Prior knowledge:
The chain is of the alpha/beta class. It has ten helices and 14 strands.
Amino acid sequence: MAKIRLVTTDLDGTLLNSEGKLSSENKKALQMAIEAGVIVTISTGRMFSSTLRFANETGITNPLICYNGALIKEPLSQRVIRHTPLRMDLAREMLAYLKKRKAYVQSYIDDILYVHDKEEFLAKDYERVYGIRGAAIGDLIYEPHIEPTKLLSMASSLEDAHLLSNELRERFGDAIYIARSSAEFVEMMDISVNKGVALKALAESMGIAPDEILALGDGENDVEMLRYAGIGCAVNNACTAAKAAAREEVPSNDENGVAWAVQQFILSDH
């Protein structure tokens, strides 16, 4: 087995426990990997500003993969390495469809979260969980003048999320990438975007081969990343698709699965 030179981990449901917290065990394991000379980064559906605090807390200085791969950005200099937003015409067409369907939607432009009404229950719930307060712009959300990095709809139930995902795939399927990082989330990015594509681009820029990568995840949006990495690990609480894509299954996010994998596949060699 090749020596691991790069490790990347998803945040919610993987590195973070069920309360959205970073455990001391996972934090220490990643810090030890960094001290051992391994490149450590994060691959998440979250926006950059929401990801940055976990990178700072852990001591990660390498480029962060955010928005399911639509943005790769350095945490210290904040230099954008790669950005693949939605085309303007496509974004406006999707927003018109979501408006007609009366679906909740939020838009991410220049790493700013925009919502229709910040007092909406789903907007307030998102703020509570992710710590990001959206800028309320009313119906202007449906008429962006800058290409959005991502659009996100939150459904009121798992069934409605599945229904909306299927409707979007039927209408825009060959033009957009739909990710499901959470049960009620339906995330829309450019068709060329996913965590696997972003990880490949980042690794190749550093001269790192797939078999030198350890990746950890739990969701449908982690599938491509887990397949690309030489050692793709799904935490025990992962969805069926993530487990099928992974080479290994590790303890759950509440059992410090990231720390277990880092110890097993990286620190044991040092």
